[in-house]
Amino acid sequence: QVQLVESGGGLVQAGGSLRLSCAASGGTLSMYRMGWFRQAPGKEREFVAGISWRGSRLYHAGSMEGRFTVSRDSARNTAYLQMNSLKPEDTAVYYCAAKYMGDSRDYQNVKGYQYWGPGTQVTVSS
């Protein structure tokens, strides 16, 4: 069973950057489709980005296109979310999630993922 742990969150000023990491243990991450989601207080969890198990296909939510970039490093068994030009509305808890490579290609569906990390807080000040 795969265990996921996010890191790299913190407090940053508007316009700044952060890189989140999602380290996996208990399984080979290259066998899983990966997703990044976020949840702000009082709001539903929303899709941020997704990456195919080979890393050849990337998906980003429209509002984050051009600012956020998802990637993965199979050798390190880690996925990443590079976040640039951060805005106060990006403040949320960010989660990484994984589902087996044979599962649905619908990266935006929260319910489609079997494994989740505990989340990391990102706070963007104005």
What structural keywords apply?
126 residues; mainly beta; seven-stranded mixed beta sheet; four-stranded antiparallel beta sheet; 0% helix; 50% strand
Largest sheet: 7 strands, mixed
Shape: globular
- Strand proportion: over 45%
Tell me the number of strands: 11
Element-by-element helix/strand order = EEEEEEEEEEE
Distance between the termini: 40 Å
Oligomer: single chain
- Which parts are unreliable, with pLDDT below 50 for 5 consecutive residues or more? none
| Structural class assignment | mainly beta
- How many DSSP helices? 0
Average predicted confidence as pLDDT: 95
Helix proportion of residues, in percent? under 10%
The radius of gyration is 13 Å
Descriptive report:
There is one protein chain. The chain has strands spanning 3-7, 10-13, 18-25, 32-39, 46-51, 58-60, 68-73, 78-83, 92-100, 115-116, 120-125. It is an all-beta fold. The strands form 2 sheets. Strands 2, 4, 5, 6, 9, 10 and 11 form a 7-stranded mixed beta sheet that branches.
